[in-house]
Amino acid sequence: MSTGESQQRQHDLLRLTSMRMPYGKYKGRVLADLPGHYLGWFAREGFPTGELGRLLALLYEIDHNDLRGLLHPVRQSGDVR
User: Fold this and answer.
1) Residue 79 has pLDDT above 70, yes or no
2) Cα(1)–Cα(30) distance, rounded to whole angstroms?
3) What would be one Pfam family of this protein (predicted)?
C-alpha cells in the first residue's frame, strides 16, 4: 500500500468518527453511530454519490464484518496516527 493510500484510509476512519449524517432519519448523528440496519438499507437501495456514499459503504463493510472496534482508538485519540 502506498503512503497516499494509507493516508486516505486514515482520513476515512477519522471522517467516520467526526462527520455527521446530513439528512434523513438519523440526521445529525455521527456516521460511526449509524445502526447496521440503516447501513444495510443503503447497501440494498444504493449509497449516495460522493464522499458520503463512499464513507457509508466503508462503514457498512466495517459493520457487516463486525469490525466497529477498529473505530474505538480513532474516537479516543481524535486522530488515527
Assistant:
1) no
2) 28
3) QSregVF_b
Q: Measured between alpha carbons, how far is residue 1 from residues 22, 28, 42, 67, 73 in Å?
A: 31, 33, 28, 20, 21
pLDDT at 80: 44
Burial of 20 (0-12, 13-18, 19+ CB in 10 A): exposed
CB of 57 closer than 8 Å to CB of 16: no
Q: Which three cell numbers stand for residue 56?
A: 457509508
Residues 45-60 have a mean pLDDT of 97
Q: Rounded to two decimals, what is the model's pTM?
A: 0.86
CB-CB contact of 71 with 13 (8 Å): yes
